[in-house]
Design a protein that fits this description.
globular, 46% strand, five-stranded mixed sheet, OB fold (Dihydrolipoamide Acetyltransferase, E2P), six-stranded mixed sheet, mainly beta
Length: 151
Amino acid sequence: MMLLVFTLDDWRYALELSGVERVYRSAAITPLPEAPDIVLGIINIKGAVLPVMNVRRRFRLPEKRLSLDDRMIVARAAERTVLLLVDSIMGVIDCTDGDITAADTVMPGFDFVTGVVRLKDGMVLIHNLSGFLALDEARTLDLALGNLPNE
């Protein structure tokens, strides 16, 4: 399995590379009224209005100001494409199923992580993007996006 590894503070996370479309430098984010707390706002990427997700809030990490060094990962989450705001991209790693420990054996009840990869220099938490938005958050986001003016 190929994983894109990214950082938030001193933590390393990963997404399955098959769900990642592209990585961009950070850019100005337009606020989205009435969006769930997990949504920082929206960005127009090549004509598509995409919600920017605050991964820090989901993992209960301290907030930080947007920096030009930050990155935005365009990824497919369940039924939508989203941007994940992260600190940096470390690269791509290739691992086998044997390299991955199921998350519930290491961190029970942590629904946003599907597994843990142990590397020589530490661990990488594999992010469960399909479970990132709770059902009520997804509905609220749909309503907020539906209220955008047509251009």
